[in-house]
Amino acid sequence: MRYSKPIKVQPVKTQPFTDQKPGTSGLRKKVQHFKQMDYLQNFVQSIFNCLPELAGSTLIVGGDGRYFNRESIQIILRMAAANRVKKVILGQGGVLSTPAASHLIRKNKALGGIILSASHNPGGMNGDFGIKYNISNGGPAPEEFTDAVFEETKKITQYHIAPIKGIPLDLIGSHTLEKMTIEIIDSVDDYAQLMTELFDFDKIKAHMADNFEICFDAMYAVTAPYARRILGEMLGATDDEIIRGESLPNFGGCHPDPNLVHAKQLVERMYDIEETGSTPNFGAASDGDGDRNMIMGDYFFVTPSDSLAIIAANAQLIPAYQGGLKGIGRSMPTSQAADRVAEKLGIDCYETPTGWKFFGNLLDDGRITLCGEESFGTGSDHVREKDGLWAVLCWLNILAERKQSVEDIVRQHWAEYGRNYYTRHDYENIPSEAANALFDNLQDNLSSLVGKEFSGRSISTADNFSYHDPVDGSVSDKQGIRLLFNDGARIIFRLSGTGTQGATLRLYFERYEADINQHDLETQEALYDLIETAELVANIIGYTEMNEPTVIT
Ligand code: G16
User: What residues does each domain of the chain span?
Assistant: First the structure.
């Protein structure tokens, strides 16, 4: 289709908003907040203002298909045309998973990409929406850029938008809008092709055909078409093996967060709650935008931290990583299980703040091959986002090679490296003032905590984590309060940077257990004394007025 008539673009006058500061991963707000007049436009124009090079460049655009995705894409395309972008590559229907968008940026050598998603947050009319800019390496823009965009949003007075309505988002092919080309592509093709280059599809397929049942929960989110193509059409999974396998704009009213609470159907199947007498051999779920993953075996849950360590320890079984790993990255609150693997492999392990953007420099500089976070994110240097289906394929490839159960693989890993007991407690939607007061109080008391003893272990370090990027020298302060104990145990306190309502306090607990006879404890019990210590030092019940966390993972 060609819009041949030249379009006269008049700038539209606007008023700045004061609340457009991107969080851990872009700007996330309630849909209704985004729907305010000019709210989205202001943010998008601020990106264009901060990156004049976008004029004449190629941009990847796509989102997780949640409510307000299509309307936003229409606005962004019209603004891209008015801001003289040369070419936009768009996933069909405006849909791209976050890792697929990252891959397309890299593959097409685009200047960057605009990704629409609020990730694992609920969707629908009263749910959440989000937008972020990814740079030419395919990864989320660094803080320097997001800070600049925020400054721009505070002073913006006008934006540019082409006065055209109804761009056909579903029509694959090349379209012209003003002088801009819009290339609409199949959302899955390129990503699926990339996966075949990384993994041994023949081996996985043969294994899956050999009395091996999987259950993949697409959570009615963006991964659905990717899973149906890759796990279904290419690897032979049946329709029954992919549950909640269609994409819906409101995620079926569910919370597309792959954890033990929100992936309930999957969990029930893996623990055979209905007593059918048979459980799948492997279970997994992904989130709203397809970058997170949860891994399970029959009657078994693999923590994301362990999953990273196990993928690293078995990477030589996966074709893409047979040449060895350069290093491993993990976010600070993620357990130290991966550090032990790195040590054994004789490679570096980097500790970064929470936020995938911090892995970008390490990946680009060739310092790490694999990286992961406790928040159900795992990835590698194949893209610059975490990647849910990629993690699933890692496990399937390892299982196809080792021909053992998920549980046996994890237990053998613990036997070899020791077990890092780990849990995260979230206190969601607490008043920001209460959360800040808790943090201020804890921060003020940090120095007095050093040397103090709790339940037989003493605090050797109490600080607020500061990250010095070894590649560009940038410093990111206040990335979470750490209580490090003399036996290697840790308690971390952070405020989430992805919520849209009130504040979410996250507490992370970890302790190491070398003794194989102690590897069967229930996680909360194993960490109970640390959980008690956190209450003693931070008065969580007092500040939050909540007796228990809202989510435990
Ligand atoms: C984002 C970031 C992750 C981060 C997670 C949780 O993930 O990309 O790096 O670990 O949020 O962040 P927070 O603890 O600040 O809420 P996603 O999947 O939401 O894009």
Answer: 12-187, 191-417, 419-552
